[in-house]
Amino acid sequence: MGLTLWQSPALSIPEKGTGMSLIAEFAAAAATRPKQVALVTDRSQLTFEDILNLVHIFDVELTTRGVRPGQTIVLDERRPEFCIALALLLSIRGLTVIFAPSTAVAALGLAVDRHLVIRELAGIPAERQIVIDQGWFATMGTLDLPDYTGRGGEGKFVFASSGTTGRPKLIQSSEASRVADIRNGARFPGIDLGERRFMTTLKTSI
């Protein structure tokens, strides 16, 4: 690999998986069309290869800052590319990622390991926060990507929903159920996992 940190034992990708893995499904789609646009936002458009590069950057940066497999992370930022990257990273590392504002999660008294934010937040211990820095992305597209074949499957999503009660609550969903949603969507005529439907389904699932 081109990145020394990736070669260290602390950064090895877990072998265990359920066979229902977001990262393996996505990487397989990306392998056949790396330069195809996969996600369009109000700021930019990203190819399948771009997204894998973004995932790898987040993996290196978070692991360097002490995030370990099995931990619970709050993603405070709602930028689509960050949500997608963390959805795929939770697959690789077996993380539980809460897609909700950090202040709301803290108010509920939930035990979490780290908060991923774009600026430091008041009321949350500084040592629990990881601030996303623009400097992280200076290496975008220059790093050798790992082989994600057969990896992942142990991640969990937690997202906000009012359900039928109208009262805000957090719901946990397994990675396998998210993959099942994507596969079910791919059964419709003219849709496959290589199209933007993959990204749309994943984004709306969180």
Describe the structure.
Helices cover 35% and strands 17% of the residues. The strands form two sheets. The chain has a six-stranded mixed beta sheet with strand order 6-5-3-4-7-8. A two-stranded antiparallel sheet has the order 1-2. The chain has helices at residues 4-7, 22-32, 48-64, 80-93, 102-107, 175-185, 196-204, and strands at 37-40, 45-47, 72-75, 96-99, 114-117, 129-131, 156-161, 169-174. The protein is of the alpha/beta class and 206 residues long. It starts with a helix and ends with a helix.
Which residues form runs of ≥5 with pLDDT under 50? 1-18, 188-206
Strand adjacency order, main sheet: 6-5-3-4-7-8
Secondary-structure element series:
HHEEHEHEHEEEEHH
- The coarse overall form would be globular
* Share in helix: 25-40%
Features:
single chain; 206 residues; alpha/beta; 6-stranded mixed β-sheet; two-stranded antiparallel ribbon; disordered N terminus; disordered C terminus
Short characterization:
With about 210 residues, this protein is an alpha/beta fold. The protein has helices at about 5, 20-30, 50-65, 80-95, 100-105, 175-185, 195-205, and strands at about 35-40, 45, 70-75, 95-100, 115, 130, 155-160, 170-175. It contains 7 helices and 8 strands.
